[in-house]
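Bit of a strange request maybe. I'm writing a small parser for structure token strings and I need a real example to test against, not something I typed by hand. Could someone generate the tokens for this chain?
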Amino acid sequence: MKIVIPGGSGHLGRILCTALRRRSHEVVVLSRRPSSVEGARVVGWDGRSLGAWADEIDGADVVINLAGRSVNCRYTRANLREMIDSRVLSTRVVGRAIERAGMPPRAWLQMSTATIYAHRFDAPNDEATGIIGGEEADVPDYWRFSIDIATGWERAQLDARTPRTRKVALRTAMVMDPAGGGTFDLLLRLTRLGLGGAVAGGRQYMSWIHDADFTRSVEFLIDQERLDGPVNLAAPAPLPQRDFMAALRAAWSAPIGLPASGWMVELGAAVLGTDAELILKSRRVVPGRLQEAGCPFEYPEWPPAARELVARWRAQREPARAPRAAA
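Reply from user aminoacidic:
Good idea to test on real output. This should exercise your parser:
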């Protein structure tokens, strides 16, 4: 198949390109930056307006739109505007390219986020019964910005007039992989420094997905002709942050994990140039539709996933220790 991936030069795009090339697909990445992506042909675009890049979509089998500015930043007015513009405008222009295609793709998988769901502890959010966030009474008002971004992102896909193309919104949890710059790398760095303890009590749920299951889920959705609309890409077993970090400490054999209060997290986030919502919000999300459709998960539970990720992290950075770590 020919698969076009707008925004495929980013962290998740590179993971996905590698997996798709292993299955011998032709992969075309649309990128604002002229850079090489292993296993893919890179074509330039601006993420806002139609151009020659749209010819790549005409005749393609699948489009997987990952474009969007990283949310790992301070939630300033300028950053929030860039986050929503980079998602909504790129989704609109992808929709326009599909609308004008003589041979439109049969499937359009659109990145979204599990953050769209409400901050809650009482029950998991699946696609059928999950509560969309934005109306919670016990969270900071500015957390609503994340919900507005997510709903605007999905609405841009939904509004596109593409009757011959199946549309799926990928409500994706934190993808865990050992590459530098990702979420797992950051959490492991804190663990190695002895800072991987409970945050603000650690009751808030963490939803996550192993990178192998992320790519497997995407491939599954490409093949499932009857699945459309929102689909949660998350491991079946979210867990409280304190338990999540305890399992990561055990995988690393870290002797201690100092806890942090809410104000300490706010201060640390400011220093690191990110936002405390990323760790304080309770994201209790489960993959209801994927499981109903029979999608397999190699890592449904966090402790085995953490051990495998730590072993791969060590293999990439500490070759001499890799055999002992893997054992």
